[in-house]
Every structure is written in C-alpha cells, then in structure tokens.
Amino acid sequence: MADWQGTFGDQYTMRNAELADRTKFFQRFLKYEIVDAFEIGCNIGTNMKVLERLGIETIGCDVNATAVNIATLNNLKAYVATGTDVDVYNTFDLVFTVGVLIHQQTAELIKMMKEMVRLSAKYVMFAEYVGDDEEVPYRGERHALFKREFGRIFESLFPQAELLDTGTAGKEMGFDNVTYWMYDISNCSSEDGFTQVARESSDEGEREEFIGSPVGAFGKVGVS
C-alpha cells in the first residue's frame, strides 16, 4: 500500500510542484457566492492559492507533512490531517477535493465523502478521473488508484444532494482530463444512505456484509 505520509507522498508532492494555473476552472463557481472553503488533500496549496486570489478564504489539510510545510511557507492555511478524520468542527460554504478520491479504497472513500458533507454548510465539489470501478496500477503500488463513477457513488450515499454542475476539465484549465461534480448538500444529513447491505465480493464471488455501502454503488471494487 502506498505510504502517502512518507517518501511516496513526498515524491508525489515534488512531481506536482509546478501545476498549470486553474483560475479559469474555479471561476465557474463564483456564481455561488462562496465566502469560505475547505480543501481535503490540499498538497502544496495550488488550488487554495487560486481561491484566495478569487477572494475566497480557504483552509486545507493534507496527510503529507512535506506538502503542508510548503503550503504554510507560502502563507496558506494548511495542517496535517487525513481526509477521513478532519479535526474541524465549524462548517464552510464549500468543501472540495481534487484528485484525492481516486486514491481511496472503498471504506476510506465512504468516510471521506461523509466527512466532506459534515464539514460543508452548502456545497461539495470533487474533480477526479472516472472509470468503470477499476483499480489502476500506480507507480508500482497496489491499492493506490481507483477509477470510479464518483458522482454515482456520492448520490447513492446522499440521495438528497442536488447536482448543480458537472463536466470535464482538461489541460486548458490546468487538469489532465478530469470530471468534476458540484453539489448543493444543504438538505443532506451526514448519515444519508448509510445502511448495512449485502454485496458480491469482487475476488471470490462470496457475499459479504459491509456497513456503510449503498446497494450497487461500488460495482466490482472490493474492500481491502
């Protein structure tokens, strides 16, 4: 399993130190009159810096201390924390993540989506690679990258969420062909959709019980 807190995460940080400007992408969300935002998996603060320039007060967390240190040296508000257990109890107009859900195994993915809803007073946005519930080899590591239909999963967990905008963002917006979803979650409970269900094991075809997964939301991606 990839060590995002250690050397593997440090190497990721260095590879992503020079990302293209994403101002054009985030400008599309200004119409929602967002005052403050929280980013899960902020890395060195590339997205936070854009939002600050656009007048949105932004705080972020990341599991990698090297990345957080770089962000804070650039006068951004960031601290070390996992995206599944954020030690913050106030809420923000927007909670978002970019390229982080793809690195979560099923149980962690559910926890992270739940945490995003808990932290948000109005909106949740995520931008990720999509695919048909498949694990993708990632720099020699297993269980490190999963392509999924993240919007479908989120809507299964939170059926009261209202989809406001979705689309793709490419190199002209500073991304490598990701799909984004923007939701109004003001009518959601953080417990929506969390029930005990039976589903098929992807590896051996055995039925197993998994607390917190809606029926059919995860296709053939197994829990490990």
Instruction: State the fourth-level CATH superfamily.
Output: Vaccinia Virus protein VP39
CATH top level is Alpha Beta
User: What topology, given as strand order, has the largest sheet?
Assistant: 3-2-1-4-5-9-8
Count of the separate structural domains: 1
Q: Which fold does the CATH topology refer to?
A: Rossmann fold
Just name the CATH architecture.
3-Layer(aba) Sandwich
The tally of strands reads: 11
What report would you give on this structure?
The longest helix has 14 residues, at 106-119. The protein is globular. It is built from six helices and eleven strands. Helix 5 links the parallel strand 4 and strand 5. The strands form three sheets. It has a seven-stranded mixed sheet with strand order 3-2-1-4-5-9-8. It has a two-stranded antiparallel sheet with strand order 6-7. It has helices spanning 7-15, 23-27, 46-53, 65-73, 106-119, 150-157; strands spanning 36-40, 57-62, 77-80, 92-98, 120-128, 134-135, 146-147, 162-169, 178-184, 196-200, 207-211. The N and C termini lie close together (10 Å). The protein has one domain (7-184): Rossmann fold (3-Layer(aba) Sandwich). It is α/β, with parallel strands linked by helices.
In short:
It holds the Pfam family Methyltransf_11. This protein is of the alpha/beta class and 224 residues long.
List the helices and strands and how they pair.
Layout: H1 7-15, H2 23-27, E1 36-40, H3 46-53, E2 57-62, H4 65-73, E3 77-80, E4 92-98, H5 106-119, E5 120-128, E6 134-135, E7 146-147, H6 150-157, E8 162-169, E9 178-184, E10 196-200, E11 207-211
